[in-house]
Write a sequence for this structure.
């Protein structure tokens, strides 16, 4: 699938063609364990150059088109999932980049970090049935107009894998109403695996450039993994950069 | 000064651990147990002689790190 156009150094993925070389960063916290998966997923699905950025760094690489906060157990989930990571030195830079409009995706633990950092509303609670859930899930693409989902076209569903013990999305009723009203709910579970409020699997911020989701697009970027639906998300994010 | 911070999920926020513990207590025969909530206590020494200032400081720590006020409430004890 990853084919370089002869002589151009650019990439062509079906309908997605980037006019320049794209650049992404994966933030690595102590305890992240999907960081390399994210790097490979973004590289293979988009051809972007991906840099790993250590949580203690105080600067991001120049000219980023995409920032990924990966899954895992940053800081051993001490205190609360994502709480310590949200205060990492690099997060001040991530916040500033997100405010400038850089596409930012937090996956699983990355979603928890974005909530703890105040970049997204709500929080992730322990799963309703107290179990770690690891399985493929079918997602309803609730909003196909976001910069992360535009590539799905007319498709209404995507299949990705969840793997979480604390993926139960919570926000107060007023916040949930606002998220739904403003089209900020991007993905919903067809069959809610963790008790998430209103079946929410992924949301964007008001500006639409920060996405948090519990399912892993990085575990669904080529058919050999059971689904290639996650690749479309990374391609969409970069196509809109 | 010694500070103790108690952090609990807010009323209305599902506490699955509390629910599991409650069921276990029922299983052991304590059928009268209700509304179990599992929280945590964080304690530390604080270099401060002024009680009011210490209270304000610990409250700031709670809001910034020790509790996530979207889902949790906290109680500060100073001694």
């Amino acid at each position: 699938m990853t084919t370089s156009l002869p002589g151009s150094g650019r990439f062509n993925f079906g309908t997605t063609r980037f006019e320049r070389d794209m650049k992404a960063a994966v933030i690595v916290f102590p305890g992240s364990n999907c960081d390399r998966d994210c790097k490979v997923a973004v590289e293979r699905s988009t051809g972007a150059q991906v840099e790993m950025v250590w949580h203690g760094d105080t600067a991001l690489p120049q000219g980023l088109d995409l920032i990924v906060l990966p899954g895992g157990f940053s800081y051993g989930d001490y205190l609360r999932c994502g709480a310590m990571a949200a205060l990492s030195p690099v997060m001040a830079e991530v916040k500033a980049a997100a405010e400038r409009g850089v596409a930012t995706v937090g996956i699983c633990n990355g979603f928890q970090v974005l909530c703890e950092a105040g970049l997204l509303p709500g929080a992730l609670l322990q799963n309703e049935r107290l179990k770690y859930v690891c399985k493929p899930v079918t997602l309803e693409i609730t909003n196909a107009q976001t910069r992360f989902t535009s590539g799905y076209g007319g498709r209404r569903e995507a299949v990705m894998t969840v793997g979480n013990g604390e993926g139960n999305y919570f926000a107060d009723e007023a916040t949930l109403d606002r998220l739904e009203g403003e089209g900020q709910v991007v993905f919903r579970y067809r069959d809610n695996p963790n008790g998430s409020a209103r079946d929410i699997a992924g949301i964007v911020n008001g500006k639409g450039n920060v996405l948090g989701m519990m399912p892993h697009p990085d575990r669904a970027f080529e058919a050999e993994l059971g689904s290639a639906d996650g690749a479309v998300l990374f391609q969409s994010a970069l196509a809109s950069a | 000064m010694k500070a103790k911070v108690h952090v609990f999920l807010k009323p209305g926020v599902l506490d699955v651990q509390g629910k599991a513990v409650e069921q276990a207590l029922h299983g052991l025969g304590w059928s009268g147990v209700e509304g179990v909530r599992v929280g945590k206590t964080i304690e530390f020494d604080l270099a401060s002689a002024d009680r009011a200032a210490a209270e304000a400081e610990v409250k700031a720590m709670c809001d910034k790190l020790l509790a996530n006020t979207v889902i949790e409430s906290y109680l500060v004890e100073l001694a």
